[in-house]
Each structure stands twice: as C-alpha cells, then as structure tokens.
Amino acid sequence: MSRGPDPRAADEGRFPDPVYRQTVLAPLFEVAKAHHAAALGRVNDAHCVMLVETGILSGRDGAAIAGALRQVAAAFDPAAVSYDEAVEDFFFHIEAELNRRLGVDLAGRLHTGRSRNDIDHTLFKIALKQRIDGLAREGRALTAALIDKAADEQGTLIVAYTHGQPAQPSTFGHYLAAAVEVLLRDLARLHQARAIVDLCPMGAAAITTTGFPIDRQRMAELLGFAAPLENSYGCIAAVDYLTATYTAVKLIFLHLGRVVQDFQQWTGAEVGQLHVPDAFVQISSIMPQKRNPVPIEHLRLLASLTVGRADAIVGVMHNTPFTDMNDSEGEVQAAGYAAFESGERMLRLLVALILSLSVDAARVRRNIDASCITITELADGLVRREGLSFRVAHHVAAAVAKAVVAVGKGLGETGYEPFRRAFEAEIGRPSRIDAAAFAEMTSPEHFVSIRDRFGGPAPSALAAAITGYRRRLAGLAEAADGEARREVQARAMLDDAVVRLIASAEPGGR
To answer: What's the whole-model pTM score?
Structure first.
C-alpha cells in the first residue's frame, strides 16, 4: 500500500523566512546598530579583560581578542552595515567580524561565561542611563529656572483658582514654588529609578550564571555600574528597571502638563493675567487681532506625547511572564527612547517660556477686586478684631460679597457700606472697623503678607522655602556629578586595561 509523502520530510524553508526578516530581524538590527553598538564594544572589551584577570582566558589569547575588537570598532561604519541573513542579529554580526580576523576557535573564546541575555540587558541599561542622565540634566535646568523665577516674582500678585473659579489672591512666586516642589520630588523619583538601572546584569549569563569563575563585581566596575544586580534570574527576568524608569518619566510630564494647562487658561483674553511676549506668539492667518501663544500648546502636546510614550512601555510589561522575553528587549527599548526625545524638547521649551513670562498686574488687580477674593481675610479679620466666631464672621463676609457682586463693582470701591450694614444686622451693633481699616483688611497685599505660616505666600515664608529648594536641587546635582565621574573613571579604567592587555603580547611586553 503506497503512502503519500511524509509532511515532516517536506522542505520547511530556510531561516529566516523573508517576512520575519523584513518585519523583525532587519528592524532590530537597525535598533542595535543605532543605539547599542558602542555599548556592545564596551561590554566585549570588559568581558575580555575580566576573562584574562580571572585566568579563564590566557593573556596571549586575550590580547589577540582585544586587538581584534579594536580593529572591528575602528572599521565599523553604520552607514555601510545592514542586516545580512547570514547572521541572526547585530551581536552575531560582530562575532562574525571577530571570526574573520581570528578564526572561529579563538574568537569563540570571548563568549565564555556569558549569554546574549545578560549582554542585552546590560546594553539596554547603559543606553537607558545615558538618557536618564540627559533628561535629569534638563529637569534640573528647568527647576533652577523655576526657582529663579519664583524668587523674582515673590511679590507679584495673581489670582489663584480653585474649580476653575477665582479663589484667593496669591503670588506668582508662590504658585511657581508649588511647581518646584513637585518637580523636585519627580526628579528624586527619576534618580531612584536610575539607581535600579545602575545595577549590572553581566555574569547572569542565560539566567543561572555560569560554572566559570567570573568576576561580576569587576564587570560592573569596568562598565561604570554601581554594583552587580545580585539575583541572576532577576537580572534577566526582572524588568522593573524599565517600569520604574518610565513611571518616573511619565509622572514628570503628567505633572508639568497641569502647570502648562494653567498657563493656557491664564493667557486667555477673558483671564489675561499672564502675558506671553511676541517671541512666543503666532498671529492668525485671517484674524489680525489674534495673539496665539502657540508654544504653550506645543508644551502641552509634548508633555502628553511623553506621558503616552512612557505609559506604552509600562503597559507592554503588563501580563508578561517573569522570565527572558522579547517583550522587554530591542523593539520596546527603542520605543521608549522616543519618550526621552520628546521630554527633553518639552523641558527646554518650558525653560525658555518660563523666563519670558510676565504678569499683567493691572488686569490681576481688577480681577481680584471684581471677584471679591480677599473676602476670606475679612472673615478672618473679624475673628481677630471683633472677637467673632469664624462661622458668624463667615456669614457677615458672605453677605458683603453677595451685595458687592450684585452691583457689579469691586470690593474696594463699594464694599464698606454693605459690610457696615451686614455686620450690624448679624451682630446687633456697629463694627469697630472703619473704612480705612476695612480697605487694609481686604487688600490683596495684606491678604498675602499676613499668611506668613510655613509654606505660605508671605515674603519671609516663601524666601525660606526657596532657600530650601536651592539646597535640594544642589543635592541632586551633586549626586549626578558623582555618577558622571564614576562613568568617566570607568571608561578610562577599561581603556587602560585594554591597552595594557594588548601591550602585554607585544615584544617586550609583560
């Protein structure tokens, strides 16, 4: 009885399938070439040095490999290199270049005690640290600009809003100081996330380390990491360095976006308390009267793009297995880098805008008077000067506000007579507060100056806060400088170790 052909014997095709090559392998090769090639060179150099120092690799073989790695690096031209299906990825492309120079046996010794798994996450962390450092630097520049602006605007009155309505007078400096505090906390969160990124996975190999006596501490040191990440399974599976980083990035721009939205409202013609200079204004193509502060919209857009891009990376990690997986590797890493690009643009633009903004003092004063927002201090003043309970004082002040709003004039212009009548009707006697005292009690300057509590807008309280902000910002900068010095020292240490290794195999070398 004859049988048909065994389907298992059919030609299943040659790797890679053309569609897989086009949609996955070639794009990932470009990601690695663009973002991780230099870091792979550092990892290869460090691993070669460590293998020789631990005796896993002879000095002669190590020198030959180190020399060939230098040749590969010198000859590397990103524009001339593209995906070749003879190799699976960029890592194997570099290995093929070593094979061509050294032969398969000697070149293959470099891979002793390691895997693409620990290499990849090390490359990703090196690239991520650089981007975190860039974003943090721009964030500190924005913080410094906000602090300086808050110091300059300590006495500049504004209308503070709650629920979209005028609430109380404050100062632009006090408002900006609130934004400074949030940004300082956000930058501290980013720095904490960097500390997770700053732990080196090298030596974890595939997921369980290796039987060779590698030195994980030395690898971390040569590559500029603070320390090795301890658990080898976690080195490969625990992608909390991604979720921590992109959550911290998301929060920075989510919070800044709220300030930008206020600026959008405050520059509107109906509110008009914030003036944007002509350098940041675009004119309508059809309506010549329009002054459109379009950069504020771009700030909001860039903030929202950054939030979305960061959120996408965290979302990709949802419901993934706690193991080695492509979901956390090249493609998602490259997608995340876009968040840093849009984020840095937003921060730089916001610095420029912040330093250019000014408050329309006349408009603010009219809005304060018309909206009766100093009325809270009238109630407080009645407690202090007339001995009333706050609830009774609140009833008097509410009656004054209602009467003033009904006639459509300001509190300072028409408020005293309604106050005198409301007080006598509620208390049953005339108030001891005369018109001059009433004017002083309901002035926005008095409202601000008497709020001299910790964290308040009064000059002394705000000045003390600003001093503290400068100190905290200096601490963040000092920590960043220390990390940068360690990175520079590690690069010099690795370069020196490679040079000495190569020299040891030359005539007269040791």
So the answer is: 0.93
SS3 content of the chain, % helix, strand, coil (to 5): 70, 5, 25
Of 270, 292, 271, which Cα lies nearest the Cα of 283?
A: 292
Tell me the three state secondary structure of residue 133: helix
Q: Count the Cβ atoms, other than its own, within 10 Å of residue 390.
A: 12
CA distance between the termini of the chain: 75
Cα–Cα distance between 337 and 245 in angstroms, integer? 11
Question: What span, in angstroms and rounded, lies between the C-alpha atoms of 196 and 218?
Answer: 18
Give the type of residue at 347: L
Task: Using CB atoms within 10 Å of the CB of residue 363, give its burial: 0 to 12 exposed, 13 to 18 middle, 19+ buried.
Answer: middle
Question: What residue type is assigned to position 376 of the chain?
Answer: T
Mention every residue, 6+ apart, whose C-beta is less than 8 A from residue 40: 32, 90, 91, 94, 119, 123
Please report, rounded to a whole number, the percentage of residues in the chain having pLDDT higher than 70.
Answer: 97
Mind listing the pLDDT tens digit for each residue in 106-126? Answer: 999 999 999 999 999 999 999
Please give the angle made by the CA atoms of 473, 477 and 479, to the nearest 5 degrees: 115
Buried b (16+ CB within 10 A) or exposed e, 398-431: ebbbebbeeeeebbbebbbebbbebbeebbeeeb
The answer to whether the beta carbons of residues 417 and 399 sit under 8 Å apart is no
Cβ(222)–Cβ(49) below 8 Å: yes
Torsion, Cα 17 20 26 29, to 10 degrees, reads -100
Evaluate the omega torsion of the peptide bond into residue 16 and state whether it is cis, within 30 degrees of 0: yes
- Chain-centroid distance, C-alpha 481: 17
pLDDT digits (tens, 9 = 90+) for 3-29: 555 555 555 778 889 999 999 999 998
Nearest to 420 by CA among 436, 396, 395, 442: 396
